[in-house]
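Q&A log
Question type: sequence-to-structure
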Amino acid sequence: MENLHRDKDGNPLIDRYSPDERNHHWLTAGCFILLALSGLALFHPATAWLSMLFGGGQWTRILHPFIGLVMFGSFATLVKRFWHHNQFEPGDKEWLAQIGDVINNHEEKLPKSGRYNGGQKMLFFVLIICMTGLLISGLLIWRAYFSAYFPIDLVRLGALLHATFGFIIICAIIVHIYAGIWVRGSIRAMVRGTVTYGWARKHHPRWFEEEARKSRK
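Response status: OK
Response body:
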């Protein structure tokens, strides 16, 4: 394969993510952590102590929306890059229907996955919906610049939606992190950009076969 390398032990490796893709992923991840902490600090008095991580309540209110814009921009770059890889196909519905086999690690019973499986594609679109919802609702409640232009009832709805989308995306990212740890070798892909020959063939066999065909042309 043209994009096949070997590690120090001679095991074959395949490129999965470019340096630019990894940089945007980790920028988005870093912003998410900051937003989750600052958002919780602003959400309830019981978690207000988290604002001390950002220099106090005033700085938390100032920084939170700007970090959100950075995260949205970085995530939008990833969406543009991976959009065509995450379109649902007939096999994805079957993959999702066999979630029991996924949990029990019976991957041999699953339809062949392309670059991303049905679960990853579902997460992709959940994140798009949540990110878009957070951006729109965030602009509605951004007092320093925008909220004065909207009716109070709309601003209140925006606050409710912002909290709802925030809760959903936190849960989705927890699932994402768990899956990355559970599927051994996945974190390496986003840290080093490569996966092993065996990992690709086991978890994303159709993608592996496509890469093999490319190398023979």
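Response note: The chain is about 65% helix and 5% strand.
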